[in-house]
Amino acid sequence: MNLVPLGQSDLLVTPICLGTMTFGEQVNEADSHAILSRSLERGVNFIDTAEMYAVPPKAETFQATEKIVGSWLANNPGARDKLVLATKVAGPSRGMPWIRGGSPDLTAADIIAACEGSLKRLKTDVIDLYQIHWPTRNVPMFGGLYYDPSKDHAGLTSMHAQLEALQTLVQAGKVRAIGVSNETPYGVHEFVRLAEQHGLPRIATVQNVYCLISRALENALDETLHHLDVSLLAYSPLGFGLLTGKYDVSGTSGPDAPAQGRIAKYESVRKQRWGRAESLEAARRYNALARAYGLTPTQMALAFCYTKWQVRSTIIGVTSLAQLDEDLDAWGTTLPEELLQKIDAVRWDIRDPAA
Predict the structure, then answer these.
(1) Does residue 255 lie in a domain region?
(2) For residue 286, is it within any domain?
(3) pTM for this one?
(4) pLDDT bucket at 254, cuts 50 / 70 / 90
(5) How far apart are CA 248 and CA 257, in angstroms?
(6) In what residue span(s) does the NADP-dependent oxidoreductase domain sit (predicted)?
(7) Minimal CA–CA distance to 95: which of 122, 134, 150, 41?
């Protein structure tokens, strides 16, 4: 894999990024360390985590993933210099009282304090890419469809003030580049405008969902990213497991569902966009299409992300070495034009059920 740049920053990363949100919940520390080591051995130089992880979020595992990554870095002192390390500050609590006491805001002081905590847990002096996990303002996300102006709240910390806090971290040498996540075209434009107008750090990346059953990004955000030179880090390329085919027969719940699948295992996940009946039905159609072309569902879903011009790096999340190898082995798979046309035809019928 050739290295690719992130936005206008000096960061160069592999087009596959190891996501870590399963570490500390579905994956224990020893197995997490093995996955991190194998990923590095196979040439992946990009790791993404977050203070909120593990997932699904809960008080008992809050910040656990960063600690696991940090203990691995401490045990492998030569690894840090080979890696681009990304993490995220959690946005407003969204019903999670263990995040800053349930505050509805993300202040400049919160950002600086959260970064200091991440540095300690990760056992590093610098975070290569520091991201705001979700917006402070009222925004439809995590499956929300509509923006409702009546839900806007005055008095929340502005994007300008958040950029000033991030500038403090960059100037202190604690952060190299910044990004956002779960953002909208407006949010990306505003972050870039404010940075350019006031001489503040420019966002290099946007980390948003992008997969066969959730392609809403192609309806405007991709144009924004292209013209503003901001790089997409695509998460959930396998649709929380729906696009692996493991739920095709059994569904996401019930006695025959794979017990360790995230959607089957966690009721909170089933209540989200991935648990919609329409999402499962759409995934089954794509999975059948993959098999008809001699591919596994995983191969097709990952190849779709790996080869799209919109995607700079695809974030893969795994629970075993076997899954990691399968995901990495899919690199280099090309999808014939006829198959891509059939994929688009399915989307025309069902649109984006997990948007």
Answers:
(1) no
(2) no
(3) 0.95
(4) low
(5) 9
(6) 15-346
(7) 134
User: Does some domain include residue 10?
Assistant: yes
**Which residue intervals of 123-220 are DSSP H helices?**
159-171, 185-198
The dihedrals phi and psi of 145, each to the nearest 5 degrees, come to -105, -30
Q: Residue 67 has what pLDDT?
A: 98
Tokens coding 208: 């948003």
Question: Residue 187 domain-assigned?
Answer: yes
In this predicted structure, what is the pLDDT of residue 272? 79
Collapsed DSSP state (helix, strand, coil) of residue 262: helix
Return the SS3 of 73: helix
CATH of the domain at 231: 3.20.20.100
Distance (Å, rounded) from C-alpha 90 to C-alpha 49? 11
What sections of the chain are H helices per DSSP?
29-41, 64-75, 108-122, 159-171, 185-198, 221-228, 262-265, 267-270, 277-292, 297-307, 321-329, 337-350
Q: Which two tokens stand for residue 26?
A: 């579905």
**C-alpha distances in Å from residue 244, one per residue of 61, 116, 209, 236, 248:** 26, 37, 16, 11, 9
Evaluate if residue 270 carries a pLDDT over 60. Answer: yes
Question: Which structural domain, as residue segments, surrounds residue 98?
Answer: 4-241+301-350
* 203-209 vs 175-181, strand pairing mode: parallel
Quickly tell me which residue has 């999670």 as its tokens.
Answer: 96
Checking if the pLDDT of 224 tops 70, the result is: yes
Q: Nearest to residue 282, comparing CAs of 242, 311, 342, 317?
A: 242
Tell me the percentage of the chain whose pLDDT exceeds 70.
Answer: 94
pLDDT at 144: 87
Contact in structure between 97 and 57 (CB atoms under 8 Å) = no
Mean pLDDT of 2-11: 98
Read off the pLDDT of each residue in 63-80 and give the average, rounded to a whole number: 97
Split into its structural domains, the chain has a count of 1
Instruction: Name the residue with tokens 């492998």.
Output: 76
